[in-house]
Amino acid sequence: MLPHRYPFLMVDRVVEIVSGKARTIKNVSNNEPFFVGHFPGNPVMPGVLIIEALAQSAAILALAELKAERMFMLTGVEKARFRRPVVPGDQLEMEVTVIRNRGPLWKMRAEARVGGEIAAEAELSAMEVSEEKLS
User: Fold this and answer.
1) Which end of the chain has the smaller Cβ count within 10 Å, N or C?
2) How many CB atoms are located within 10 Å of the residue 131 CB?
3) For position 61, what pLDDT does the model report?
4) How far apart are CA 44 and CA 37, in angstroms?
5) Catalytic residues, which ones?
6) Whole-model pTM above 0.90?
7) 57 φ, ψ to 5°?
8) Could you list the residue range(s) of the whole structural domain that residue 56 is in?
């Protein structure tokens, strides 16, 4: 559903999509390319990549709601909080919920959990764009 590919595809599985809500999974493995430099000997998933995983989950939900192929661009991140580190071996359980959708503009509430404990949360804004506008 997403245009992303390795190494930047941050969603491994879609668990559930119901009206206005999606649950997805990212299995965080030791061989993720970002762990080489963040941080050597003490690998921690960068917060910006957790937000990216949540944004990709939000795009999956929006695409499912629209039942059409579109391209989404992240336009805002608000109220982002990081509650615990995400490390190799963790399974990031993500849930996104539509707050509102007006035309091409979307706003969603997003949470990432590990073992039921919140690792990160944010409100994400995105906009539907045509691929022509990207070139």
Assistant:
1) C
2) 10
3) 96
4) 10
5) 38
6) yes
7) -65, -40
8) 13-134
